[in-house]
Amino acid sequence: MWTAMEAGDDLSKTVVITFDDGYRDFYTDAFDVLRQCGFSAIIFLATDRIKDTPVRIEGVDYLTWSEVAELHAGGTRFGSHTVTHPDLRSLSPDQIEYELGYSKEIIEQKLGAPVESFSYPFAFPEENKSFTQFLVDILENLGFENGVSTIIGRASKNNNRYHLPRLPVNSWDDASLLRAKLEGGYDWLHWPQWLYKHAHHNMSLMQRASLAGSGTWK
Fold it and tell me: What is the SS3 assignment for 10?
């Protein structure tokens, strides 16, 4: 689970609870707990893993479309997490547009409601400015209103709305640790995260120089 929060001194500011992929345990376990607490959430679906009957991939069960419809009727919102959950950097521009556009289209068809939010699979490549701008352009053209990423931190008005940061929330977080995250205690982790990505990106560019012109984003 990831939580996106608007940064600020007032803890009453908006907190958005998000779940990636579309695991079935949201339906069997999490939904009732959230409802009892008066909370709602948004689930980002990798649509090729959502079928009419539950499918198991890598030991995890996924939601069915009837369960998605039931959750939607109960106040859960849904967004796109691509079709096949690929690393977008490995795809051509046309393939990326398909992954984003078709996932949005199929969810809208199934639910009869607009899909406005997107969640990036895998680590968000913030160090690759040309690629992230390309993603922003596609999301805008497809009618998305925002996108969330694996960048660690709280969202603010200074963030690009198409790659908003989030805070990871884990089963071992106690109340004090969760409060520390919501108050900004984890925001500093974005900088070592960025430095690691930047160094890894530069090394990858050197290693892949011979593959230039392959038609995929690197």
Answer: coil
